[in-house]
From TrEMBL:
PANTHER family: DNA POLYMERASE III SUBUNIT DELTA, REPLICATION FACTOR C / DNA POLYMERASE III GAMMA-TAU SUBUNIT. It is an enzyme of class 2 (transferase). It comes from the Bacteria. InterPro entries: DED_dom, DNA_pol_HolB, DNA_pol_III_delta_C, DNA_Rep/Repair_Clamp_Loader, P-loop_NTPase. Coiled coil: none annotated. Its EC number is 2.7.7.7. Residues 213-260 form the DED domain. This is DNA polymerase III subunit delta'. The keyword Transferase applies. One of its GO terms (biological process) is DNA-templated DNA replication. Pfam families: DNA_pol3_delta2, DNApol3-delta_C. Keywords: DNA replication, DNA-directed DNA polymerase, Nucleotidyltransferase, Transferase. GO terms for cellular component: DNA polymerase III complex.
């Protein structure tokens, strides 16, 4: 289903407001540069902007989404709207020249023309120089939209010819909602949205078996800790260590454990909406009742200390054993 303006506005209020204003006030710039991480909605915004510009039944700044222009733009079949994407690793000079040749003609159906360059930072030097000339002599009715995840890789001369619109990384709750729209189960969506604020990365983690297993092991470790020290140390030996082998993996495991303690703290503070392990709410509530806030905060400090020690040369097995003893005893690293 195509994204509508309101949806994108929730994620990117500032960027979408800028684009909406230029359409509503009839002040469309010659070139826009949409910059921001992957998955922040730059492509969707370009598509909506193009539709708004060409729509036959526009309502304010919003395209109808139904007219023949909206539909053809949606299916990338509109003769006056062109998309340039990297051909292999880069966008080549020939691609920009072909675009220029196309734009030298008047609009096929209207006087307006629009082109979108996806991954504009992947233009070769020659391509970038050709584009620069093109941007320096704008044709009336021509609009350029450049997209990039790496603003610093673009020529400053190109950036200065564009109106820069920044797309912000998504806050966890919004990112989780986007993941749920992709049918990711809520408990995985919430957790991955905290592990990264990059949509694509979060989507990959949500579909990663190792990650799903990690989550289970972290919950099981907590349960073992609730039993007794011996159980927890045994669990460490048998389940945790074989699963979290590389330092990066251990670091991830500790992050997941930290989120679990943070959930308990959130419940102790009455902040249910922030809970990440949302499928285990009943257990979490019990665990939150079974210990004090002070103890929870103490345990979170201990996990953060363990994370810091991972970067030293300390033996990981010893580190984890010490962590378990500290969590069980309510003490911190010395
Ligand atoms: Zn329309």
């Amino acid at each position: 289903m195509a994204v509508i303006w309101e949806q994108l506005q929730q994620y990117q209020p500032v960027a979408m407001k800028m684009l909406a204003n230029s359409i509503e006030k009839g002040r469309v710039a010659h070139a826009y540069l949409l910059e921001g991480q992957r998955g922040t909605g730059k492509r969707e915004a370009s598509l909506l902007f193009a539709k708004s510009l060409f729509c036959f039944n526009r309502d304010g700044y919003q395209p109808c989404g139904e007219c023949s222009n909206c539909r053809r733009i949606g299916s990338r079949n509109h003769p006056d709207v062109h998309w340039i994407e990297p051909d292999g690793q880069s966008i080549k000079k020939g691609q920009i020249e072909a675009l220029q040749a196309e734009f030298a003609k008047t609009g096929v159906e209207s006087r307006k023309k629009l082109y979108v360059i996806v991954h504009a930072d992947k233009m070769t030097t020659n391509a970038a120089n050709s584009l620069l000339k093109f941007l320096e002599e704008p044709h009336t009715g021509t609009t350029a939209i450049l997209l990039t995840e790496q603003l610093h890789r673009l020529l400053p001369t190109i950036i200065s010819r564009c109106q820069v619109v920044s797309f912000q990384p998504l806050p966890p709750l919004l990112l989780a909602n986007r993941l749920k729209e992709e049918h990711i189960p809520p408990h995985l969506a919430m957790l991955t949205a905290h592990v990264t604020n990059n949509y694509e990365e979060a989507l990959e983690w949500s579909r990663n078996d190792w990650f799903a297993e990690s989550r289970k092991i972290v919950l099981q470790l907590y349960e073992a800790l609730n039993q007794n020290e011996v159980q927890a140390l045994l669990f460490l030996q048998e389940k945790w260590m074989p699963h979290f082998q590389e330092k990066q993996q251990v670091d991830m495991g500790l992050d997941l454990l930290l989120y679990l303690y943070r959930d308990i703290l959130h419940l102790q503070l009455g902040q249910r909406e922030h809970v990440v392990y949302c499928d285990r709410l009943d257990d979490l509530r019990q665990w939150a009742l079974a210990c004090s806030q002070k103890r929870t905060i103490n345990n979170m400090t201990t996990i953060l200390q363990a994370k810091a020690r991972l970067n030293t040369n300390m033996n990981v097995h010893l580190l984890m054993e010490q962590l378990i003893l500290n969590l069980k005893g309510g003490t911190t690293f010395v």
